[in-house]
Amino acid sequence: LQFGRTEVIDNTLNPDFVRKFILDYFFEERENLRFDLYDVDSKSPNLSKHDFLGQVFCTLGEIVGSQGSHLEKPILGIPGKKCGTIILTAEELNCCRDAVLMQFCANKLDKKDFFGKSDPFLVFYRSNEDGSFTICHKTEVVKNTLNPVWQAFKISVRALCNGDYDRTIKLEVYDWDRDGSHDFIGEFTTSYRELSRGQSQFNVYEVVNPKKKGKKKKYTNSGTVTLLSFLVETEVSFLDYIKGGTQINFTVAIDFTASNGNPAQPTSLHYMNPYQLNAYGMALKAVGEIVQDYDSDKMFPALGFGAKLPPDGRISHEFALNGNPQNPYCDGIEGVMEAYYRSLKSVQLYGPTNFAPVINHVARYASSVKDGSQYFVLLIVTDGVISDMAQTKESIVNASKLPMSIIIVGVGPAEFDAMVELDGDDVRVSSRGKYAERDIVQFVPFRDYIDRSGNHILSMARLAKDVLAEIPEQFLSYMRAHGIKPSPAPPPYTPPTHVLQTQI
Length: 504
Prior knowledge:
This protein is an alpha+beta fold. The chain has helices at 60-65, 157-161, 192-195, 210-215, 238-243, 279-291, 332-346, 356-366, 389-399, 417-422, 456-468, 471-481; strands spanning 32-39, 51-59, 70-74, 85-89, 98-107, 120-127, 133-138, 153-156, 168-175, 183-191, 204-206, 224-234, 247-255, 299-305, 307-309, 314-316, 319-320, 329-331, 348-349, 374-382, 404-410, 430-431, 434-435, 441-445. The chain has three domains: 1-94, no CATH class; 98-234, Immunoglobulin-like (Sandwich), CATH 2.60.40.150; 247-481, von Willebrand factor, type A domain (Rossmann fold, 3-Layer(aba) Sandwich). It is 21% helix and 28% strand. This is Copine-8.
């Protein structure tokens, strides 16, 4: 699918294209991009009429995750020929990431209630391109007064005016009635630009009821509304931290307990089918291929648990898949897959199913870097019934104070009730009366993603999406809770100036 084309730059081998492309970005999806370069010889829009110069494949995550969101890649396409380099940069559109804290009061509003005064509230509307209005905020009701002071409230600039500072914002003032037939007191209009002047004579508004104005010659207004304060706060995003250099460290832990079945048998969840990945391999690849774009060295620690290890048959709940406990790092997701297959041949599946050791393993690393420069994601792939529930809950409660998240993918037919309990979406995990500081566990059952048609590619993309969707929010909740601001991004890239050499 063609997304767009840059402008043509005449007569150069070092073009600096101006046209920008706006793409929706999702951390949890693999967004594949292809860039084709052409030498344009005529006005024809048909690309086959122009010389193909080469192409580049990458993912949006690769551009965003590279240092300073700046990626250089060689252009490929003409065998045996150097086709040059493409330089890609990405920046987040931030016009609408601001939120505003505002407070209003009113004076001498019309009295609407027979017995008391009025019970006023404000309704805010933003105008749309077609002139219609959409409600975007309601204040609380202040009872029995003609001079209400409403509480300060926070609203995103996107919700208030869609980022357009001069767009009309309409406010209506009502008197609240129990039966829902609220009486209209009056209205006025303003804009974000007006409001941003803060408390001043510009932000005292006459509340006008057009019907009254039409009927009564002497009518001036139905009271005034005054802006008391206006404070802009910029919301920082997940990408601000990634741009500032925060690295995501990805660790894998695989369940080697005997309940998975003998790896030599086709019924085993660890069956090494030469033609197709098993469920463990699919889960590792699906999640790992997305997360790896955010880790600069692409080296991933890979652990196993619940097996007897050679040569002496001791049971381990945190062994290095590559056989090197001092250095359990594997090179890329491919390296993790290789280490996983190698260890299947050498260890004996055993038990029990203990999670706490691998969680504590990653927590030890996470507790040593709390400055926001690193965040740890542990992927546990398991067939199921957990043996150390109490210790696991305790390790999750302790880990919730650290820069880490835990993803659990359940493979096989078991009931995963305990996993659902660890995923604190409904009830926050607790241990010995202490609750987790934040929800850090995301659980998904692998069987929900096996496509009946056998199309694993699509279902793996869905698995990765569901598993990773919570990570940016969990990441931000850690940074906010610990008052960590993103580091400034490195200065934008400026291409080197090319000096033309002249022959003398």
